[in-house]
Write a structure and sequence with these properties.
Number of strands: 11
Shape: globular
Oligomer: single chain
Radius of gyration: 17 Å
Structural class: alpha/beta
Number of helices: 9
Distance between the termini: 19 Å
């Protein structure tokens, strides 16, 4: 890691730990706790979700890709209730992507299906070739600043998911990206934006919907292979991506 890379990591980690500590100390955090090292769940996540589902971009979406974390549970459940196809990333992409078609699942089971365990039980693990074009992306965040620059929990998997789907043409620079966070997670910090990062088009808290200025919008074009660690290169989805695209570097 270069000195510059180390400095960026330090800045991002300091913000993450400040937010995790703030959510815990103010008792704003919700199960599962403690939230350190997680996309933090928070009290009012269901209320924040209501702002997102009123967006025209949400209403028009037929296929939604979502992270598997707790605070976005309400958006996953609402997508299923509205009959939207849900593409969920498995934790750390160890099992690739899960496809959930609510038309094939009893309505009484949807609240279970929107969880990680339920998605594995009622959804279907799919190859990259089976994933449909995605209309809207739901992402999880530890913090977001006023420009829409986000911080995840530091593993890089959300960016990896985006890069895979972008490289396959299943999303593009116009595909809206949304998230739900608590007001305490909105920061004034200048978050360093790295080549593999992306910004969000909307972020909602329990009190407000935010739409960052589009001039700050950034999207990576795909996977940056030089950034992949040996461990990431061993993931099944990465090997499949290389097979589909015909290149590994």
């Amino acid at each position: 890691m270069s000195e510059s890379d180390s400095s960026v990591k330090k800045i991002k980690d300091e913000i993450r730990w400040r937010i995790w500590r703030l959510l815990e100390e103010t008792n704003t955090a919700a199960f599962p706790r403690p939230v350190y090292g997680r996309i933090p769940n928070f009290k009012g996540a269901d209320i924040a979700a209501r702002f997102i589902i009123e967006l025209e971009e949400w209403k028009k979406a037929r296929v939604v890709k979502s992270n598997p974390d707790s605070p976005q549970y309400h958006l996953r459940l609402q997508a299923l209730r509205e009959g939207k196809i849900l593409v969920m990333a498995s934790p750390r992409l160890l099992n690739g992507f899960i496809l959930i078609d609510p038309a094939k699942i009893p309505q009484s089971k949807l609240s279970q299906v929107a969880t990680i365990a339920g998605a594995f039980r009622y959804g279907r693990l799919v190859s990259l070739r089976e994933i449909p074009i995605i209309d809207l992306v739901v992402t999880g965040c530890v913090a977001v600043n006023e420009k829409g620059v986000r911080l995840g929990k530091g593993g890089g998997y959300s960016e990896l998911e985006y890069g895979i789907l972008r490289e396959l043409g299943l999303i593009d620079e116009k595909t809206p990206i949304v998230t739900t966070i608590h007001d305490l997670q909105v920061v004034k910090d200048e978050i360093p934006l790295e080549i593999h990062d992306y910004t969000v088009d909307y972020y909602a808290t329990p009190t407000k919907l935010y739409k960052p200025d589009s001039k700050y919008k950034y999207r990576p074009r795909g996977i940056y292979r030089e950034l992949l660690t040996p461990q990431l290169r061993e993931l099944r989805v990465i090997k499949e991506l290389f097979e589909i695209t015909g290149r590994s570097n």
